[in-house]
Every structure is written in C-alpha cells, then in structure tokens.
Amino acid sequence: MSALTAFDAALLNAGAGNLNLLKVSSILPPTTDYHEDLYIPPGSLVPIAYGTYTSANKGETISAAVAVGLPEGNTFGVIMECSGTCTKEEITEHIKGMVKEAFEKREILLKEIKVAAVQHNVTCNYGSAFAGAILWY
Amino acid sequence: MSALTAFDAALLNAGAGNLNLLKVSSILPPTTDYHEDLYIPPGSLVPIAYGTYTSANKGETISAAVAVGLPEGNTFGVIMECSGTCTKEEITEHIKGMVKEAFEKREILLKEIKVAAVQHNVTCNYGSAFAGAILWY
Amino acid sequence: MSALTAFDAALLNAGAGNLNLLKVSSILPPTTDYHEDLYIPPGSLVPIAYGTYTSANKGETISAAVAVGLPEGNTFGVIMECSGTCTKEEITEHIKGMVKEAFEKREILLKEIKVAAVQHNVTCNYGSAFAGAILWY
C-alpha cells in the first residue's frame, strides 16, 4: 500500500471513491439541501470540501473532520475541514471552534453545526483518514 | 486561530472569502476582460489562480503575489503566483521575472504585467498572506 | 528558474502548459474515449489527474507517472498518479501495482493499463517531472 492507495481506500470507505473530486474551499451556498446518501454516478466531477490525513507511522491515531455551519436565515454558510494526529473527540471540538470563528468573522448568526469526523489507527504501512462534504451544484 | 482560519481571514480581506475556490494553474484565456470589483454571488464555484503563505512564526514577514501577463494581440496570457517569507517589494520583483520567463518560453510578446502583492507581519499564533486572480468563465 | 517556472516548463513539454488545469482525483468515467493528441483551446478549464515532482537538487533523477486502468465491460476505470526520486522503469512498475490494488479493492476486472511515465535529470537549479491524463467532459 502507498500513500495514494491508502487515501483511495479511505475515500471508498467514505462513499466518495468512485468520483472525480475537485477540492474546493469552504462556503455553503444559500438554500442548499442536505442529503446524507445522495447517489452520484461514478466518474462524475464533484466539488468537495474535505479534510484528510495520511500517515506512515504504524500505531498512530489519525483523524479527519469536516463541519458544516448552517446560518440563520437565507444567507450562505461555512464549511471547515481539519485533520491531524488526534482523536475523533478532539478533532470534533476543534472543528466546531473553527466554524464558530468563521461565522463571527463574517458576522453571520450560526444556527447549527453538522460534523462528520473519523478516527483511524494506522495498522499497516500506510493509513489514511478522510472526511468530506460534497457540493452538488 | 488555526492555519485554516488564518487563511480564511486572508481570503476575506481579499474579497474572496465567501466563494468556493477551485485552484487552477495559470493561463489567461484570450480576450479576457479585467474587472477589479466584480460581484460574484456567495457560494459560487470560481476558478482562481493564487499564491498564499501561512506562518506560525510570530514576527515573521510573509508575502503573497499573483501576476497577470497580458499578451500583444489576441492570444492567451500567463498568470503566475508566488509566496514566501519576503517583503512585498521583493516578491513583486520576483514574480515579474516569472511572468517574463513564461512568456519567453512560449515565444509570446508581453504587453503588460499586472501585479497584486501583499505583505503581512505575523502578530498572533497564525498569519496568512493571500493574493489571487479569479477567472470567471 | 523557480519551482513554479520549472513546473510550467514540464507542463509545456507535456502539451498541457497552455490550459487551466484543475487537479482531480482519479476515476475514469464509463465509456470514455482515448485521444492521444486532442486539441484543446488555450485557456480552457480542464480536469486532469497528474503526478509531478519538482526538485532543487542538481544531479537528482526524478520521475512522474500517470496510469489509466481500463475495466472489462461498461463500468468506470481508475487513474493513479505517482512521482518521486526514482527512474522511469521503477515508477512504471510501482504505478501498475497501484492500479491493480485499486481495481482489487473495487472488485472490478482490469482489462488494460496505459502508463505515461517520464524521467528527468535535474541539470540546473530547479527541475520538474510531470505526467498527466486530461479528462475532457
């Protein structure tokens, strides 16, 4: 396994392994709908905000998270991504703070934060954690 | 503040903080118009060429620049991006050289170089410099 | 020459230097046609899967490769990219293994692997190797 095939395996676990991902920065367009299990045909070109961490250190705990901050009213929201050598609980707390900071800076009221976080313990020569939010325009 | 929220703050200062940015390499399509203050709705997906530098070293001077080389005639131009631990003056000189080199390699005549450069002195735990050229197709 | 202008020179050699490249992850959409010399107008925005390596070590041998795994039947395929300080032969072997691993993980039958690999010996202050597969939707 290489760094890229570990990342590929993490993508497959997340349900995004058969898409062509375009990494974007992190704004939630106004009036976006939320779908947890949207079917997107393989090979589609999809914008995605994601956090990922790939490690070659056996035994290491790695995490990745993505958080969507939903606003009050009809304005846009903010998506943050994060990853590192920490636990799922730690990264969840950290990313919530990032979303709050981004809302404060924009002076937008925050209604709700949705977090997707994952933790992985590297058991072979490469491991990868991945969390993403696909934007389907 | 984290590396990503510092980058987010730099994006907001540049007027690109509420867009979904797709980082692209660096060709200016033929017959492109230039707008300094184009309004683009929040959450839009926009291709952008940019340079950015994020530092965790308090007191450090960081810079980012983007330069658009406009060609003679109706052909395409070249966009270069650059960033590092230097001053705005230094990065401006450096990026002009990069544009000239790219034009020479393509044997296209250079009419004008537009440079946007920014310098930041890191005052808290993270700082980020950002300069970009949005391509609105 | 800087790291970016070395990369730019490698892109020009590959025939992708006058396009706006959007780096994507690596799925070959079903029923894709293969064209070795497709003309794409300068400045076009094109998704591309690529491997690249830029080095500032004079005398170093660097390589980059991209491999397209074509499936049996009408399903999607997988594209892998790779780069490093090795020879063209080494990277070609390595990337074939990556494609096989990606197909096994997806339980798709592999019909053929197309590899584009390149080797470069760094002769001046910067050198860059690049191999890519453009996806033209």
TrEMBL record, chains A, B, C:
Cofactors, names only: pyruvate
Catalysed reaction equations from the record: L-arginine + H(+) = agmatine + CO2
Pfam families xrefs: PvlArgDC (PF01862)
Coiled-coil intervals, chain numbering: none
Gene Ontology MF annotations: arginine decarboxylase activity
EC number: 4.1.1.19
GO biological process: L-arginine catabolic process
InterPro entries reported for this sequence: Pyr-dep_his/arg-deCO2ase (IPR016104), Pyr-dep_his/arg-deCO2ase_sand (IPR016105), Pyruvoyl-dep_arg_deCO2ase (IPR002724)
UniProt name for this protein: Pyruvoyl-dependent arginine decarboxylase AaxB
Domain of life, source organism: Bacteria
UniProt similarity note: Belongs to the pyruvoyl-dependent arginine decarboxylase family.
Keywords, comma-separated and alphabetical: Decarboxylase, Lyase, Pyruvate
Transmembrane regions listed in the UniProt entry: none
Organism: Metallumcola ferriviriculae
